[in-house]
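Minutes, project check-in

Agenda point 3 was the complex the collaborators sent over. CS summarized: two entities, 746 residues total, and the question is how they sit relative to each other. Sequences were read into the notes so everyone works from the same version.
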Amino acid sequence: MAAAALTRARFWTCKVTGLKVHEAAVPPLMVNAVTAVVFLLVGGFLALLVGLTRWEAVHLLSPKLYYMVLSLHAWSMLIFWIIFMEVAILYFAGTAVLGARLVTPQVAWVAYVLMLGGALLAAFTVLLQGDAYDQPMLTSYVPLNIHPLFLLGAIVFAVGALLAVGVFFATVWRATRERTYRGSLPLVTFGAAIAAIIAVESILGGAIAYIWQFLYTVGIVDNIDAEMYRVVWWLLGHGTQQINLVAMVTSWYLIAHLTTGATSVSEKVSRTAFVLYVLFINLGAAHHHLSDPGVTSAWRIWNAGYAVYGAAMGSLIHAFAIPAAVEVALRRQGHGGLFGWLRHAPWGNPAFAALAVSLPLFGVLGGITGITFGTEQLNMMVHNTLAITGHFHGTVVAGTSIAFMGVAYAVIRLIGLRELLSHTLATVGTYIFGVGMAVFVVTMMWLGYFFGIPRRHPDVTNLPLIRSPILEAIMGIAGVVAVVGGVLFLAIAVGSLLIGRRLEKGPVVMPIAGGANGQTVQGSAATHREAHDLRGTLVLCLIFLAVFAVIYATHWINLASLWRIS
Amino acid sequence: MPIAPPSERNWWDLPLGIHEKVWLTLVVAVGLGLFIMMPLWHVFGRQNPSSNTYRISPESYATKVTDWSKGARQVAEGLAPPGQDVYLLAGRFTWFPNALVLQSGVPYRIHLSTKDVNHGFSIHRDGEAAQKANFQVVPGYEYILTMEFTNPGVYHIVCQEYCGIGHQFMVAKFVVTERG
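CS then shared the predicted structure for the full assembly.
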């Protein structure tokens, strides 16, 4: 029966990558991706409003509007854009990469309708709830007065997302049973499966928090422990961002391959790093309770330290393994020297540009600050300041969003079968977005760390704090620049899908090196040994580590200058 | 290829190159180093968040603060506590008391809680923007932090957790005088 289903399923083959694409998988994949992009559009517009309010010289919105817009911005970006896009990536990794069919496309559609319905219900409640209720922001801490329909929307969305993850698992399980691939899972699917496991953990956590709070809001549950709510809620709040992280790393491996023919130098190392994520990364939710009552220092250190920094080790390994894969691929094409391979990288390819921008920005702006701010004692100086907002714009925007843009450019051609309107504009837009976000994030952290400017604040002008109007202006302008880059991405992505030149099934996707179909990039044990000239990557990583050491040490020195706190 | 199964079935057994080994060693060392810093700072450092917490209902805490404030002395710049215990009650959108007079070099036990939603206790030394500390104030919990101010001066307190539409007006201060 399974075999019959497999025969009935219709596929087409990409001539370049050799991927077999299941036709019935394409519509849900593309619709999820397009929905994601629409939420990015909405969230990006709202980002402009938020940024122009925090630039106090402009101060666009009243407090009421600010909180509403900020709530919608947070949900559009951190939850809707990211999770819809991740569902698309899961469907891609589960079907095309495995040459498999999407199991139960009907359930995929039900999942989509639930996710979209929940998202719209939550979003419109935020818009229309009126003054009797508190805005949920992202966090909706009990006992804020949150509208029950908002919570219902969040619950329905979570159920839909869990269903979609279920479809992915069923698809991979079926592919294994039907032997559409031999041996171990491809690395991209492996990474996607890791992201999916973390997604289940975090979305379940969120569903529990929201169902509990919904019952409380409608009067069935009398009392919720506010600290316990924070701990459970952050399984979602932080966990969803860890899905981003894993999906982003997976995307990096994919983009590196599609644009340079890169293959992980060591499957063992790359996969071990992914496993470290599964084991340790969700402990990172404790980063939000380092300055809380209700937990002990032992709890904080163990959890916020990811046990013994297992998850950070995973990230540091990928930070090496991905550029290493690119280095080996480019060296094989004859580009030698310490950094000669890097000079000859395809910098003009929009997908590669996305990799080249998002990987270092994620590491420096998101990674270093994540570890530093997530250290028990150092957190006291940044908790709930703009520095935290800076940190997660470094991870989620400069990192994940730019990586997903790169994937989107690749998928538009590979699965959408449309030529990009302009490769040059797409590439330039990626760099503009990266530069804008980098400056934006650094100024945010500067304002938060050195001036103590709070996050989620509608008007800091009447606070008894020192302000820096110049930094505020730079932050605002850099935010606008990033939005320009984002608009370019949206225009090109949506424009290409609508009016881009149609490509034949099996287009020349990206300038893939190392042979027409990439199949030649594989090696025997002998070539494996030759493939270990990773000097360039090691030097880059050592520079990164030095920067990390300086920033980390500076934070301890500053902390030591405070009065005694215990 | 990351979009195909590993080309060698024995991928787990393939050896690593020297550059990879160097990096992996560094990674493990970094992880251990980062982890050990936190307990070390508890032993040798002077700035650590407290683990000192009690469950308490918002009503009982409010009563406690009122009783304590009756024993405090009202001076020109604010309320001077009777001993080394200092109570703060957060509520939408004020702190009670909103001005306290303390002395430098005295270890105060600062009790924090709220009568309604989550608030943030963010304390900044006046004119020294980088000198600040932030803590969460959670309903149902009395959080006790010991603080000993080195320098006299004004320390501003602002609410740093979104608590509703008047969040931005929630400020208070400690006036720290020379120990006399």
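Noted in discussion: The CA atoms of residues 122 and 134 of chain B lie 4 Å apart.
Follow-up: revisit at the next meeting once the mutant set is ready.
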